[in-house]
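so the lab meeting is tmrw and i was supposed to have these ready like two days ago... anyway. pasting both below. for each one the top line is the aa sequence and the line under it is the structure tokens. i havent really looked at them closely yet so no promises
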Amino acid sequence: MLPGAIEGGLDDRLVRSGKSVIGISTITAPRGNKGRGTQVAQGSWARSRKVEGGIAALDHILKFMTLGIIIVGITAIYTALHTNNRRLGADIFLRYSERISDLRRRLPTAAFHDEGAGGTIEMTPDERRIVHEVIFSIFELYELKVHGFVPPGIWKIREPDIERVLSLPVFQQELAVVQGRFAKHPRFAAWLDQIGQGRA
């Protein structure tokens, strides 16, 4: 059979069966498109999961950065407050020290003699008032130290000098007069007793 006849017979059979070469291609094409569609869907799903994972990682990073900023801020505030408290305590201490020094300068030199006196030390009313002011200034400074307004390290700088002043006969004499006013402040009263015992 001639090749043309074969081709013609094939075309006739296709025509009789209601199909064509183009028809066959049209029928088989959707199968290939379905496979590609599945691959596209899977790729889109993978990209979506990858994007979600990136967003979650970025969210964790931002949370850690926010937490770090908060911690740094709290540390800075605490440091500033601590520094400010120390500065305030030093300022309070210096002001009281200056006040006590000014009062002491207004007393006669004899008031600071450490020799024991056989009886009552004679003082003018003004000198007695100054001694009382010194005692109460020291009391106020001591209470500020007890309640944390004056750092212990700063207090220790001046404490030996304060104890020496309070152990002088003229101050011991006047402490016996005003000590009853410190009954509600047992720590200060105990400190005064310790100074008196050390002098004895």
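ok protien two:
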Amino acid sequence: MKRNMVFALLIVLVTSAIAYAGVPTIPSVADTKRLAMEYYEQNDWMNAVERLSLWETEAHMIATLTLAATKPGASPTALRELPTPQLAVMADYSELSQKYSKERNEAVFLQAQCYYNLGEHKQATECLERLFELVSYRQWELWTEGRKLLGVILGLGIE
């Protein structure tokens, strides 16, 4: 328990430094995710939702920045003219963007679950609405879980 508390304080310190700097890094997103999931698994919904929100923000920023880095090479002309190694780098950036978009979506869904568990259904439905705007059909399982939670909250009786 003491180790978890020291770890949590370290994460808070690191995330505070990142928030001050304004730019998340791959390690800071991983640390934020780890702490958010730790709170979530302990059913500490209030702390979990706080960290999940930070995880969402950081993952979104990484996804957006890495996608933006591919834009100059996305035109048909650039795709024809760029050497294969540069195209491979663009593919790596695109994959990172997709990975962190999925993480962002997961964080949004988990926030909805936390709010539901706290009995704050309005906030839960706001998170689900945001999730449905962000999620792609490729995240079928997350989309399905979101729809199921919405069905429970609204009493829809639809699976």
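from a quick look at the 2nd one: Residues 66 and 93 are 5 Å apart (CA to CA). Residues 2-154 form one domain. will dig more after coffe
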